[in-house]
Amino acid sequence: MTTQSPRAAARPASLDAVLSCAWDAAELTASDVIAATGLTRSTAIEALDALTAAGLLRELPNARAAGAYRKGRPARRFELRADAAVLVGVDSGQVHVTATVADLRCTPLGTARTVLGPAHDDPAERRAAVLATVDAALADAGRDRADVLALCAGVPAPVNTRGDSPPHPDGFWDRMNPGLRDALARVAPLVRVENDASLAAIAEGTRGAAVGSRNYVALLAGERLGAGVVVDGRVLHGAHGGVGEMVAFDLVEGVGAAYGLGARAAEWAAEAVARGEVAPDGPLAAASAAATPLDGRQVLGLAAAGDPDALRVVQRVGAMLGRVVSVLASMFDPERIVVSGAVAAGVHQVVEAARAALPPGLHLPAPELDISPLGADVVVTGAIAEACAAARRHALDLWAERGA
Q1: pLDDT in tens, 193-220
Q2: What pLDDT, in 10s, does the model give residues 13-43?
Q3: Mean of all residue pLDDT scores within the chain
Q4: pLDDT at position 305 over 90
């Protein structure tokens, strides 16, 4: 883990058990706690009172006051104080930074987005921009740094379990993760830095297309390909965090480089126009002649509208995706591969073509190929989920340190 965390404080195990119950339930009573944990009634009530005094739980009106009382003594009811602290999820991309603040139940409270210019390739400038985006999101939520319990940030670079990225031949990974773990420690007591595709995989398993699956790959596929790999329910990292890096596709015939689906669609459409392979009066030629260069979304949109020239490009991109899926399937044996990120909204035809292009001779059963429902904020969604997991593990340690 890349989480910076306090040393666990000595305390009754009943506190951890009851807080875990509260995190999983909309509300709970002592009877609910007993049924879930096997604690005695006196111990359950003691723990509920202690957590309420610490500010992590809130006592609700009893069943009589809530109108649900029938007979006998009304039960005392409690809930997690979702507003006791906040979580922060960050997608620190090459060009865009998004930060979202959520309560302890992962309900979003505020968001800020920043577009980075060329100057932000400087490590100090990038760190400052990420911190400023986090502060803007906190302001949007009406909170400040003192309220933050846990923060997780995703970056487009391999990240090991300590939050560090290895050197890159041209320094790209160093620029994308310029000591963010230490910089973000100014904001939160619990900090994790993770590869963006790995966070996308966490998001897909938490609330996306891979819920309930223990073996799957999330494929971030916009401008570049990146994979978050989950095997037997665990996100894989490797010695340097490079499990999901796609440089091997430079050597795969029909793929040639780790360019994403949108980038490939734009590249191959422009090549087809330049070679005169499209109708000169067709939509693709007209889009190419516009003042701005083609981008992948335009090509995918034209294909969805039925333009035959764009459809041929999409078929070629789908065949490429089929090869990528085949290689990932042979390497990791997933039951499903999920196309994630902003590009997912427009890739239905690409995915259909990829399914048709999967070779029939795979030795292992072919994985399901799915499209993420989580959109452009999939990395932030995964980051918040990881921040929440860290908060659940260490909230009581931090409350003890605060003297609660």
Answers
A1: 999 999 999 999 999 999 999 999 999 9
A2: 999 999 999 999 999 999 999 999 999 999 9
A3: 89
A4: yes
Which range is least confidently modeled, 7-11, 208-212, 277-281? 7-11
Note the pLDDT of residue 2.
46
Long-range CB contact pairs, 124-130, < 8 A, 24+: 124/178, 126/92, 126/175, 126/176, 126/178, 127/178, 127/179, 127/180, 127/183, 129/97, 130/90, 130/92, 130/97, 130/99, 130/180, 130/183, 130/184
Provide the token pair at 121.
């390739």
